[in-house]
Amino acid sequence: MRRMGRYSILLEAPAVVTGCAAVVGQKEGEGPLGRCFDEVLKDSKAGAETWEQAESMFLNKAILLAAQKAAVKPEDLDLIFSGDLLNQCIGSTFGLREFNTPFVGLFGACSTMALSLALASVAVASGAANTVGAATSSHFCSAERQFRLPLEYGGVRPPTSQWTVTGSGAAIVASGGAGPKVTAVHFGRMVDLQIKDANNMGAAMAPSACDTLKSWFDDTATKPSDYDLILTGDLGDVGRALLKQLMQAEGFTLSDQLYNDCGSMIFDVRTQDVGVGGSGCGCSGSVLCGSILPQISAGTYKRVLFCATGALMSTTSSQQGESIPGICHLVELMA
Amino acid sequence: MRRMGRYSILLEAPAVVTGCAAVVGQKEGEGPLGRCFDEVLKDSKAGAETWEQAESMFLNKAILLAAQKAAVKPEDLDLIFSGDLLNQCIGSTFGLREFNTPFVGLFGACSTMALSLALASVAVASGAANTVGAATSSHFCSAERQFRLPLEYGGVRPPTSQWTVTGSGAAIVASGGAGPKVTAVHFGRMVDLQIKDANNMGAAMAPSACDTLKSWFDDTATKPSDYDLILTGDLGDVGRALLKQLMQAEGFTLSDQLYNDCGSMIFDVRTQDVGVGGSGCGCSGSVLCGSILPQISAGTYKRVLFCATGALMSTTSSQQGESIPGICHLVELMA
After folding, report:
1. Partners of residue A88 in chain B, C-beta under 8 Å
2. In B, residues 230-259, which contact A (CB 8 Å cutoff)?
3. Among A15, A52, A249, B60, which has the minimal tally of Cβ within 10 Å of its Cβ?
4. CATH for the stretch B183-334
5. A2 and A12 in contact (C-beta within 8 Å)?
6. What is the DSSP string of A191-203?
7. Are A2-174 and A182-334 the same fold in CATH?
8. For the segment B275-303, what is each residue's pLDDT rounded down to a tens digit?
9. What is the pTM (predicted TM-score) of this model?
């Protein structure tokens, strides 16, 4: 492994995604990517008693399916990196507890799929581990209860709000084997332009995506057209439009042919009543693991930048008047 | 880097702790280790308006002091690993925001100092980064408000309860230079013996410390007497006694000469009204960075096992009747 430029890290021995899976809820299953997901659970409680336990079940199922595809048992993984939006990351803790594997808990808000995949890839490429899991989850009902209002209240959502995805994405990363390769990673910096509106996460996160993409292009002397797909998540339609403007001002054109956002892709914003798109760790997690990684395996994409964004806030920080720092972690994927 | 046995990771090129610092509150400053800490803030709000912002200030100061000792600027760090107990890790987010460095947010509850130091060391030893920060924090008042009862309520604490440390520990890790060496790490597994009493964290976490220590000794074919110091944190007096029993049953004697616990060390449990000892991420963070690492530098200790323990629960999981999984991450330190 060696550093490229100021912030990017080249994996000279690439890590290989040998298995991946996405398990989502019914609404996600009815969206444009519905057929990509490995499992669509019509029962959003997944047979559990609470929304939080249900979120853990989604994560648990995603890891099991990903491990199955990678032909490993979850208990044979050397390490699992995972995190979620719930207080103290209980989605991950209780979803992974039964596997009895070493566990690193992460907090990256909605950027967690890129964060977990980047760290898993570094662990594998460095020889610290041979086979590693990377996962994340979110659940509309557990997120609404924790961050916003009880579902029963039926609060009206502002037009810039996004809809938390019910779902989980999981990937198994190994030092060899067949599958998409993680060739480089870039851990993001916090960018805070003093956005305080917790119902406009796209605006809070777009500047961090711009910061990470710009420094990636600087570090690697590449440009957007060197990639088949640049994928952010989860900026939604508002944040996506903002990012295009911000990048244009930096001299980089993100055309609709090569740029998309997981939050804009997972739902049909015209018909599914989701505000400006999807959000939550499970959004970019399930889009990456359900749709993009399999398309890299199939040869549709040869070189992809996966740039997951997170809003680093809590209800407490918002109630205390703090702004919302954004962060964007990047993973380069190649066929 | 290479794996030793099933779970342990040898850093063939050790990472070096080139600077470390601990910043604590007044009560911690009045404890047995009071003179070890770099800074004791008599104002537990650290000049901030809220307890949460104060916690961020402790973390910010610890990173600044550690960086100063390592002769680097915080903004020149390639990466900072940090986490805390607050919902969505806002202690770390707002404590580190101004440094403008790549940031990996962690959740390991009270095990976070070992988790951040282990990941920072892997990042440095692998070539992924040259100079990396590892930090954590906790604050009695922000933790009480979030996890238990408002301070104003004046609730009586059960006899097995621990006192959350107000403080932060930070370390700078580099690929070369002078200082204690991180020679190996071991990421822990969750161990859950169905303890549900959130006022008896020592009992919830001791089994995970036993699990990690046992598998470390198995992996490395070493025994307790091969070390000058085995340091857990933060089991407190109850958990420490339990761990000694559990280890004895596994055939390993943890004598008082070589074994201690950060939660038992930071306060005088007889006079400071802290229940069975200290807890919180900042407990093992400040004991390691304020007392132990400097003593390794000074030659007092030659080979230390730092085994920080965490209780992976939230108020939601406890209210829903869940038990409390423990986790213990281990870092081997050598002079």
Report:
1. 85, 87, 107, 109, 312-314, 317
2. none
3. A249
4. 3.40.47.40
5. yes
6. B------TT-HHH
7. yes
8. 999 999 999 999 999 999 999 999 999 99
9. 0.98
